[in-house]
Amino acid sequence: MFSRTLKPAASVTFQNGFKNFSTSSQNNFKVVVAGAAGGIGQPLGLLLKQNKLVTNLALYDIAPVTPGVAADLSHMDTPARVSGHKGPEQLADAIKCADVVVIPAGVPRKPGMTRDDLFNTNASIVRDLAACIAAKAPKALIAIITNPVNSMVPIASEVLKKAGVYDPNRVFGVTTLDVVRAAAFIGEINGVDPGCVSIPVIGGHSGVTIIPVLSQCEPAVKLSDQSKIEALTKRIQEAGTEVVKAKAGGGSATLSMAYAGARLVCSLLRGLNGESNVIECAYVKSDLTEATYFANPLLLGKNGLEKNLGFGNLNGYEQGLLKAAIPELLKNIKTGEDFAKK
Ligand SMILES: NC(=O)c1ccc[n+]([C@@H]2O[C@H](COP(=O)([O-])OP(=O)(O)OC[C@H]3O[C@@H](n4cnc5c(N)ncnc54)[C@H](O)[C@@H]3O)[C@@H](O)[C@H]2O)c1
Ligand SMILES: O=C(O)C[C@H](O)C(=O)O
């Protein structure tokens, strides 16, 4: 397994979480995919079915095809047992005893929409799933893919708070795709394997809130001129929109998201399993900035978030990006919290 060095947040090792590997420790986890029949959910299930840390893969969706997706995946000759759960009456059964619940349930963007335009539809979906997790698996780690991530994490957190089971170390907004994209683009620029690129992406998951910290990239990005750094930053911030436009009404990123989601889930499981030095960026409750939720490198462990590693030194340009992101994050967080308090 190769490792990535992340500078200078805490001079830590940033490991590629998406790997199949055997382990002699617990190796016995239940993972639930909520939204399992969708564009992300299906390939995410495919990847998780191949993960040796997963012994029980529960696929939940409201779509009629859900039992079929479960039947299909269950024919793969890998150890994870697959169960399908369709509709709200089968949700509790899907969620009970979960170690990790990953949520890609909800509608995706079409061209011309912002992620915030999805709020009205997706907010109640995430609220209701969080309420069931609070009741049936209050200790589960929750990884929220559903957009707008910046608002969905505060909603889930408020629901868990109301139920008296909130642990900020267990609720994660999935920003892994931003990290994966940044590494892909930089790998291409530098002419190296993107898997060897270590690049923290901090802030949130939409437009100006996505802050690639290119000054901390290892190896250094081979771009000398500031205008090229700014163009690369913009491309990473707008990469989701690039896919939405290219799919021309057929949805947003699904396959790269499934890859990124499987990587984060694998890292969460490796942390739960007691592996050391497991580090990923994710959007969590935070006191690093004015924004009460913020994404940056995190050390994962047996209880989820073990240690927030911060984001180290930003150069002048990156400080400007952070300044632009904070008001947007504050607005997104308030929207989520206000909804949950209704
Ligand atoms: N965090 C990220 O980086 C990232 C990346 C890509 C997409 N997304 C978001 O992920 C979400 C899903 O995208 P997609 O392309 O898979 O969409 P999709 O429409 O293909 O799939 C969504 C699935 O959710 C299911 N669903 C709807 N309501 C549900 C409910 N109450 N309970 C359970 N399942 C329910 C649908 O039946 C469908 O199968 C969108 O909100 C999208 O914006 C986030
Ligand atoms: O762009 C989207 O709407 C989906 C996702 O957030 C992405 O970044 O691809």
TrEMBL record:
Q: Which reaction does it catalyse?
A: (S)-malate + NAD(+) = oxaloacetate + NADH + H(+)
* Gene Ontology MF, one: L-malate dehydrogenase (NAD+) activity
Q: Which domain of life is it from?
A: Eukaryota
**GO BP, one annotated term:** malate metabolic process
Which keywords does this chain's UniProt record carry?
NAD, Oxidoreductase, Tricarboxylic acid cycle
**Family per similarity comment:** Belongs to the LDH/MDH superfamily. MDH type 1 family.
Q: How does it assemble?
A: Homodimer.
**The protein, known as:** Malate dehydrogenase
